[in-house]
Specification:
With 178 residues, the protein is α/β, with parallel strands linked by helices. The chain folds into 2 domains: 35 residues; 136 residues, Glutaredoxin (3-Layer(aba) Sandwich), CATH 3.40.30. Helix content is 39%, strand content 23%. The chain has 5 helices and 7 strands. Strands 1-7-6-3-4-5-2 form a 7-stranded mixed beta sheet. α3 packs across α5.
């Protein structure tokens, strides 16, 4: 008789936390999706790109490297500030800065006021991709993963460099690609 009580007590010690966790998950489904630790806004579902969607000037590529992309209609003073912020973020990431590249996509093909050799210039060829990106706040800064998916965005008007660096450090720490 004692063996049966011990068996059921031991079984409940292992199964009770699993049951309570499952019950909590199904009774409160929004809890896990609302409480994230990232400061940027996740794009859900991610926007998948093909090589033919974006025309990149030069020999750069989106494959195998994380890419910060500033998407705008025309490069103006806000564009210059956002490009400088992204450059600062890339510099402050220290050793992992080789894993990140910067890109500007200006619809009219304009360039920033200061010449920057490491900034990649590109244009969107696919109108479907441009319409998807237009649904986000104007002049957003996007993060593209090494596979080519738009996965995260920041609003450049209220961007906090420290928070972006925290996001990137966490992302690069756990990323096995790029």
């Amino acid at each position: 008789m004692t063996f049966k009580k011990q068996f059921w007590a031991l079984l409940s010690i292992f199964l009770l936390p699993i049951g309570l966790g499952t019950l909590f998950f199904y009774l409160n489904p929004g809890y896990f999706s609302q409480n994230t630790v990232n400061y940027g806004e996740l794009i859900s579902p991610v926007i998948v790109t093909e090589k033919s969607d974006i025309s990149i000037m030069g020999d750069a590529s989106l494959e195998g490297i994380w890419t910060f992309v500033y998407v705008t209609d025309s490069c103006d003073a806000l564009c210059d500030k956002a490009i400088e912020d992204v450059k600062t973020i890339r510099t402050l990431i220290n050793m992992d800065m080789r894993r990140i590249q910067r890109m500007l996509i200006a619809k009219d093909g304009s360039m920033p006021s200061q010449k920057d050799e490491s900034l990649i210039h590109a244009s969107i060829i696919n109108n479907d991709l441009y319409s998807k990106l237009s649904s986000f706040p104007k002049n957003s800064i996007f993060l593209i993963d090494p596979i080519g998916n738009f996965m995260l965005y920041y609003n450049p008007t209220d961007i906090n460099v420290k928070f972006v660096i925290k996001d990137l450090k966490r992302l690069l720490k756990y990323s096995r690609i790029g």
